[in-house]
Amino acid sequence: MFYRKFPFKTSKFCRTKFRFEQPRSYKMSYNAILVQKFNPGTGSLEWDLQAESYDYTQEIARSGFADMLHDEERNLKYNLALNKALNILRIKGKVPRVLDIGTGTGLLAMMAVKANASAVFACETFQPMVKCSTEVIAHNGFADSIKIIPKRSTEITVGPQKDMEDKANVLITEVFDTELIGEGAIGTFNHANQQLLSEDSVVIPARATIYVQLIESHLVTSWNRSMPINLGGDFIYPPSKVSCCPGNGAVHDIQLAQLKEAHFKALSDPIPIFNFDWNSKVPIPVEDTNTVNFVAKCSGKAHAILMWWTLDMDMAGEIVLSCAPPWAHPEGNELPWRDHWMQAIYYFPNDITIKSEGERLHLTGYHDEYSLWFGLQTETPPSVTLPRPFCDCSVHLACSRPRLGQLNDNDRNQKYIRVLEKVISSDTVCLTLGDCCLLGLIVAKLGARKVYAAERNPHCRRVLEAWVKRNDLEEQVTILDGDLEKRKLDLKVNLVLGEPVFESSVLPWHNLYFARWKNNVQHLLADGVTKILPGKAYLYAMAVEMKDLWKIRAPVRSTQGIDLSVFDNLIESAIDTSDSQVEPHPLWEYPTRALSPAIQLMMLDLTTLSLMTKEIPEVEGKVNLPVTGTVNGVALWIDWQLDEATVISGGPTAPVTLGQNVQWDMHSKQAVYFIKDPVSLQTEDRSLSYQINFVPDTYEYKFKFSIL
């Protein structure tokens, strides 16, 4: 089983943005806790008994080895701005009183003490982090210099015998996300300026600017819009409602540095669209719009907006912290890596044609308290406010953006088509298993007698129904819910087909649920003649050197003269207690060098109906590490074999060259096993040993990797 986990981030006005769903939990009376977990073997959520400290250890584990504390540029520029502000106050004869909102480990508060602030208050609402910051602060010898206020900033009281005797005249806080305002920064700063800070206060950071850039990109569009499927000149078309849907309003955060020049065309220069003055005593509007007029850089189709932001850490704007991509960064291409603040993509519901270079355009930005969205006009902008995008076609509710990209991947689709052309006949009765699986439409178009499409998710069923109707395939394609164990069909199935992809899957091998589901429909199959596609699944591994991703599991040790070893020990203990061995990551966004060839660890024959009862032995072995580098992880993925010549890979999309960066599939997440103690390879006599156990009941793997 696999806990669906999320990165921890506290804030005062918090709209938490999860990478994985938070597991539901209920405490029991005998020092234990029931936790809801995803079981890939059954495709369902199940309850599991854990120690009472589970919630604490899991949330701390997922927060601590994030890259935020490894972001030395962030730490340095906060420290520089803080020292500058305190020096200015002292020159003016002021006594610095510092408030740190969302202190976390207490890092910024301890910086304030080291900068000789007269009083320091640290606010933190998440109780496990209150305990953590208390221990870290005490370990650094600052327990008597920092008052920790264990509550939300909006609950802080000011006055005699209250949380703070007087209002602070310095606020230092980091309440930003990729979207800048998604963690409630507007509300946090507004409240602090009105209730917690003096009239002459200094806020760090001082200001923020959001930048946008208009682009044309078929790759980016494929993550938001359904495309036709080409069957040699005959097309399967998406429903019109799908084609013009504005899409999912949630931010699409991404590492833009990993997009290549061929992936997009810039139709404009970077444009500042919103400015936020965090020092303002006049409340920042919770809802606002701004229209900028500009000229196009070249002709093209406007598909989307790229977005990033910068912070002026000081009032003079001399200390700047930028999240810009390489081509727009003020300090050039050698950027600090960060995963806590990335860049973002915002989509237009329809293509907007730009006829020529120099054409005048009007871009309107909108924001509420937590979100941004944009509209583009070639004519005079309308006075009507564009509502926040919301999916009305079900596709964006049923499919993640990588899944949409996968469904639109023409090379991938053509592989399925070439294999299916060999096996489909007028006698074919096909059962498709998966989520938002369009393969059944291809089978029907190729002339099959009947297609039964099983979809567990009601959103997926609505999506597929619309596709079937749009392409006049109602007679050939029947859509079923996922409960097939007691179902009877008019015709016996002689082809079971899947990609296989299930939206509930977290790790690559969770899609092996296809085998379990397939095994439960034996009563629907024609005796002895049923073909299963894919027929085999291969688990692969590769020793890698991750340029930056390793930092999310690495100890911080110290930063800006602050000892964080207590925090490191807490996180390591929490991970040992609660965390999974592997994590899912889209490795195309994180450069990784191959330090070993791809290793086939295990093959599973999906045509074997007795798979669930077979004992699959432990697999052991080793592989040489012939190139120099630092082994800090092992990448894992699944390849699905359709026939002897055709494989759908969730891993590398090009031949792997040892010592070079791997080109990963852009529409899949790979699994990453983090080596606890990275090993530097200086000679060619080192090897990677592995030990893998497959658990048939749950389709989970247990891994052990070590460097010899």
From TrEMBL:
Described purpose of this protein according to its UniProt entry: Essential arginine methyltransferase that can both catalyze the formation of omega-N monomethylarginine (MMA) and symmetrical dimethylarginine (sDMA). Specifically mediates the symmetrical dimethylation of arginine residues in the small nuclear ribonucleoproteins SmD1 and SmD3. Arginine methyltransferase that can both catalyze the formation of omega-N monomethylarginine (MMA) and symmetrical dimethylarginine (sDMA).
Species assigned in the record: Daphnia magna
InterPro entries on file: Arg_MeTrfase, MeTrfase_PRMT7, PRMT_dom, SAM-dependent_MTases_sf
Gene3D superfamilies xref list: Hnrnp arginine n-methyltransferase1, Vaccinia Virus protein VP39
Similarity-based family: Belongs to the class I-like SAM-binding methyltransferase superfamily. Protein arginine N-methyltransferase family. PRMT7 subfamily.
Enzyme class: transferase
Methyltransferase recorded as keyword: yes
Domain Protein arginine N-methyltransferase residue range list: 207-357, 536-698
Keyword check for Methyltransferase: yes
PANTHER family: PROTEIN ARGININE N-METHYLTRANSFERASE, PROTEIN ARGININE N-METHYLTRANSFERASE 7
Superkingdom, natural source: Eukaryota
Keywords attached to this entry: Methyltransferase, Repeat, S-adenosyl-L-methionine, Transferase
Native organism taxonomy: Eukaryota, Metazoa, Ecdysozoa, Arthropoda, Crustacea
One record GO biological process: methylation
Protein's UniProt name: Protein arginine N-methyltransferase
GO molecular function: histone methyltransferase activity; protein-arginine N-methyltransferase activity
Enzyme Commission identifier(s): 2.1.1.-
